[in-house]
Records
---
Amino acid sequence: MTVEGELKLLMVAAPGGGKGTQGERLAAKFGIQHVSSGEVLRAEASAGTPAGREVAAYQQRGDLVPDQIVFDLLTPVVTAAVARGGYVLDGFPRTLPQAITAADIGRRLDVILDAVVYLNVPEPVLTQRLLARARADDTAEVIGHRLRVFAEATRPLIDYYRDRGILVEVDGDQPPDSITADIVARLPPR
Ligand code: ADP
């Protein structure tokens, strides 16, 4: 079933947490655009532009791409999605400074996030899933680093959005259909 309408969601999860899979499902269900920061950045890296070459180096190490590059590449994509009636942001904002800047931009454009979905998955499950996936940045060493980056840089977002009353925390260690059902049941009424 597709339910049309303005809805603005943010997915937060550790690497391997399933935010890409669930983000795509929610976007399809609600007829809104799925915006994956990782994919936007990987596309730029593949294009081999000067910014893309920089992006590739950070991604290969499992480090966060500098904010300036992230905002330059993501702002136009997110703005276009707003004009088309909503989005599921997957992976951006990913740090407290990014969230604060994004909220400032949002206030100026009169754009408000409806909910932030946090998929909670135990670390051993994350590592297992990532090793099975084997993307270029899914080597054991880089995975360990990305999990530490998540704990330090992204985890603070969970309290930030909980304090704002928009956090929807879901058990991400279930079959994909059950996770989707849990999220949909707990989204704010529209
Ligand atoms: P995962 O969540 O499995 O790490 P993503 O595709 O979301 O996969 O991200 C892959 C990489 O892209 C990250 O390790 C990071 O280098 C970069 N990246 C994605 N989103 C951001 C962001 N908002 N800020 C900085 N770097 C980002």
---
Amino acid sequence: MRLFTTVAALRCFLDLSRGKQPRSDEATEVLMGNPSLTVGLVPTMGALHGGHLSLIKRARRENKIVVVTIFVNPLQFGPNEDFDRYPRTLKADREFCKQANVDVIFAPTPQDIGIDHQQPTQVMPPQSMMSVMCSVSRPGHFEGVATIVTKLLNLVQPDRAYFGQKDAQQLAIIQRLVADLNLPIEVVPCEIVRESSGLALSSRNQYLSLEERNQAIALYRGLSQAEKAFRSGERLSANLIQAVKTELEKVPAMKSEYVELVNPITLAPLDQVEDRGLLAIAARLGTTRLIDNIRLQTRQPIVAIDGPAGAGKSTVVKLVAQALGLLYLDTGAMYRALTWLVLKSGVAIDDEPEIAELVSRCSIEFVNQPDSTRILINGQDVTEAIRTLEVTAQVSAIAAQAAVRKVLVRQQQQFGQRGGIVVEGRDIGTNVFPDAELKIFLTASVQERARRRQQDLKNQGKEEVDLKQLEQLIADRDRKDSTRTISPLRKADDAIELQTDPLSIDDVVKTIVRLYQDRA
Ligand code: AMP
């Protein structure tokens, strides 16, 4: 692991890693840049704990290089805030990062990073996102956050940047910033990590006395009470907020700063929750300011089924959807529909910019009919047309293009907004619907998948293929799928693995239906 404190060193390391700059001893080996070298950034203020670790672990899984920045950002502290006493524990943080297999810590001083002068250029998030929640008592805070995050994103130029849901307003503002400034970065939101008591982990918890630690649990208790009321059908903000306040009021030492219910993306205050809301609190215990939040959503559950090719996902997904009365979101059909459009438009399969243009402008719809689901692209029904050999032959080449994947994943997420879907793929539970209620990782041994494939071919009256040869093909495909730069095959941490070697399709479907019902 490397630790850098200067911009020059960080840039030099990243340039060398990306192969953009020749090493002095390899002057002739000027590479064009290494596109498969993905970089994940985890910005922190240090005093690292389990919450940070969850971000680092996720970044570690998803990227070749993990950069953790440790910087107590003066721009985001007000004059009477805890900038001077904020815990600075670089030595321990260094060990923490080493254990977590981080590649680089970037820990600059304000001078190193160029914000020591009086009036640095600032990034200004939308006023509407800064008139609520923490902005009210912390004027200037989010300008400071947005400015430093923009600097870090520019310096590191990561593929992905990881932020905790714990700081929900910060997360929403950064997501907006990245979208509004067209930064080519994926913002990855990470769930709140809590102690077993429910208290959200925070570097500021160090300030709490033992008594205050116990009192601080009221934040989570309040949110949990509101969630309970929400689950029983309460939708009015005033009542949900009151449920939180009632719990907070039980701790006289707790001085509530705000309890607000807002739209989690725009942060606009809500009178009632239509489909989703963010219920957030800030409160003071003694001199310590604590924040916490919870998301409330009414959408129906999502079942995400991932797993290696040939494990039976596409057969199972339709049957599960039928058995549960949910909609089968056929993501494969979306890629096929686009492939059909590309072929029809006469665009070359490898003309990625032209295909990016096409996919960004196309509209795909699923229309439910009594006996089938039709798929339309730009208003044209292509349900049958997408099953031709020509489309089948080209669909993987098109689905592998980054721009195509990005746009279609966004569309899938839009289809999933109301929930009530079953969907299968390679990265549905990890990337497309990380908040799916039920995630299944359907798998089978290479030998079993080869045997099933051989049987399928036989049933289709095709020439017999050697079992060993099929095993080899399947093993090669597994390797390719799990090492892809874009959306590799990976079991989500919270997915349930179903090894289907000894199971019939009927058994698999019944198991998934039972798991779904157990969770309901
Ligand atoms: P901080 O060091 O407090 O600025 O936090 C750095 C990042 O870690 C931010 O994206 C936080 O949202 C995230 N984070 C802090 N605490 C937690 C937690 N308990 N669970 C998940 N993420 C967290």
